[in-house]
């Protein structure tokens, strides 16, 4: 009997943000990707306009997390934008959906992401709810990519498959249970891509 592929649950996920070690978030709203429709018609055409693709538009990534000492990194990320330090503020990021056993199951990567809005939590002394802060992250493109496991690291030659890619995306693929991006591994990954062996 063929095994039935059940859909993954939405309740287990982690985020990888370049340069930030982040814990899990309580909520993550993935964006939409749309292409504007441009209508065009010539006099000799049928009485129906042609539909041409216009600019690609990507919605924001919305994150919510309970206030902790570790969540201070997100507020500091937003502060870089307010100070005009956009070179430091733009980061590559990834949302990783986990399966029932905690292994990566689906992965969405984001390019040139930066926080455009930060909402501090609403405080109310009459309730016992968790204090939640919210971050709205804009970006210049995203795509769902195949999840790579450590078992096929040696077989990484491109075979022209159907895995979508983003232009100039320089972001390491997570291995095992992703809990963040550490700077040494990121630099090692980029150094290997920038210095090919020509001898």
Describe this structure as you would to a colleague.
This protein has three helices and nine strands. By secondary structure, the chain is of the alpha+beta class. Strands 1, 2, 5, 6, 7, 8 and 9 form a seven-stranded antiparallel β-sheet that branches. A hairpin with a 5-residue loop joins strand 6 and strand 7. The longest helix has 12 residues. About 20% of the residues have low confidence.
Blueprint (SSEs and pairs):
Elements: E1 13-17, E2 27-29, E3 33-40, E4 50-58, E5 61-66, H1 72-82, H2 86-89, E6 91-98, E7 104-119, E8 132-138, E9 142-145, H3 183-194
Antiparallel strand pairs: 1-6, 2-5, 3-4, 5-8, 6-7, 7-8, 7-9
Question: What characterizes the major β-sheet?
Answer: 7 strands, antiparallel
Radius of gyration: 20 Å
| Classification by helices and strands | alpha+beta
Average residue-wise pLDDT: 78
Q: Helix count, per DSSP?
A: 3
Q: Quick gist of this model?
A:
The chain is an alpha+beta fold. Helix content is 14%, strand content 33%.
What keywords describe this structure?
two-stranded antiparallel ribbon; 9 strands; single chain; 33% strand; 3 helices; extended; 199 residues; seven-stranded antiparallel β-sheet; alpha+beta
